[in-house]
Amino acid sequence: MDKIPILRMGTFLLVTIQVDLYDRLALNLESDLINMVHKTGARGVLIDISAVSIVDSFMGRILGNIACMTRVLDAETVVVGMQPAVAITLIELGLSLNGVYTALDVERGISLLQTKLGPNDELADDDADDTE
Amino acid sequence: MLTTLSRDRLTITREQDVVPCRNRVKEAAVRIGMGIVNQTKLITAASELIRNMLRYAGGGELLIEVVCKGRESGIRLTFTDQGPGIADIQLAMQDGYSTGKSLGLGLPGTKRLVNEFDLESILGQGTTITILKWKNG
Lengths: 132, 137
Fold this sequence. Notes:
The complex is a heterodimer of chains A (132) and B (137). Chain A is an alpha/beta fold and 132 residues long. In chain A, 42% of the residues lie in helices and 18% in strands. Chain A has a single domain (6-117), classed as Transcription Regulator spoIIAA, CATH 3.30.750. Chain B has one domain (3-134): Heat Shock Protein 90. Helix content of chain B is 35%, strand content 34%.
């Protein structure tokens, strides 16, 4: 069974999706991520989809779900690295990813999260160290 | 006059068939030199319809054709299933309508992504959806 690794970066979690997602894999990612947020007390989640060539309505719904679920657990989700063709297609399809923060790349995603969390929060300072 | 240059027939029965199907559609689109935006639209449309077939009809068949009309070339996809059929096509084509638990974007969204969209459905017998995307459409 394939599994998408979730990396821990300080108070954030980073997920880089590098394979074509089929439904089961996407649903597993959803539950793995939520469990990981709960376990680590992460304040932010970055989902890098720069290697994803297709986001259909199912995948879009999963991204929206992850954003809502992590928010309930007091963590913000940022989807980063969307390809331009994917953005065009998503909007024409009618999926505007309402409620999901997006950023151009991981770096900008991190600074968005840091702004959202405010100055009081401990900032991510160490490199990826934990894989699950 | 629409001429078919090549045909590729695939059977879809499981969720895991979605990714290889998308890849075959992509191969066909790349072969005729379709640009990345149109490719993405076509593959996304295919993905939506394949998912519909699996969800509502338990699977079906996909026919991938490279077609041309004059100097224009394109990809035509035909999705055929032997599912329950669609009771009210007009309603099914409305944004936000779904009998399942989805967002109800599949059919109307798919139509927006392609150049031609044709839906035929007979209750109790099945549904056939044909979409066409021109290379430069």
